[in-house]
Amino acid sequence: MDRIDTGSVFGSIGSQTVVYGHIHRPYVRTLSTLTVANAGSVGLPYDGDRRASYLLLDESKPVIRRVAYDVDREIKALKGSGLPHVAWMVKMLETGSYVEFRREIEERLRPAAGTSRASP
Questions:
Q1: In the list 32, 50, 53, 96, which could disulfide-bond 26, CB 3.0-4.6 Å?
Q2: Nearest Cα residue to 24 out of 4, 8, 47
Q3: How far is residue 110's CA from residue 75's CA, in Å, rounded to a whole number?
């Protein structure tokens, strides 16, 4: 949001409050005539805080809420899931931040051939 003029992007909507998602970074920004908010991410935050985040509209005022959960348990289940790009997702869960996808992360953390995967 720092790189764009929020008034020009959201001003034409005609509302005092605009809420959107999908960028994994929770925030509430109040401008002179407009409040812009993003809920963040329940399971894959990019702001360095591993807790789940959601947004609550309290009498039309957006408020970010955080909820701690067992991230290490989630990581263990993810490692045993057999999903592609697990090592990349694990790195993001561990740090609570976006990590650029790199093949060497995948190859370094991939289970050795012949090892069984744990059940989630």
A1: 53
A2: 47
A3: 14
The two three-digit tokens of residue 115, written as one number? 């090892």
Please provide the distance, in angstroms rounded to a whole number, between the alpha carbons at the two ends of the chain: 37
Predicted TM-score (pTM) of the model is 0.73
Contact 1, 27 (CB under 8 A): yes
* Amino acid type, 108: R
DSSP conformational letter for 47: B
22 pLDDT more than 70: yes
- Of 30, 28, 35, 38, which is closest to residue 13 (Cα–Cα)? 35
pLDDT digits (tens, 9 = 90+) for 4-14: 676 677 778 88
Dihedral (C-alpha) 82, 85, 86, 87: value to the nearest 10 degrees?
Answer: 140
Cβ–Cβ under 8 Å, residues 70 and 94: no
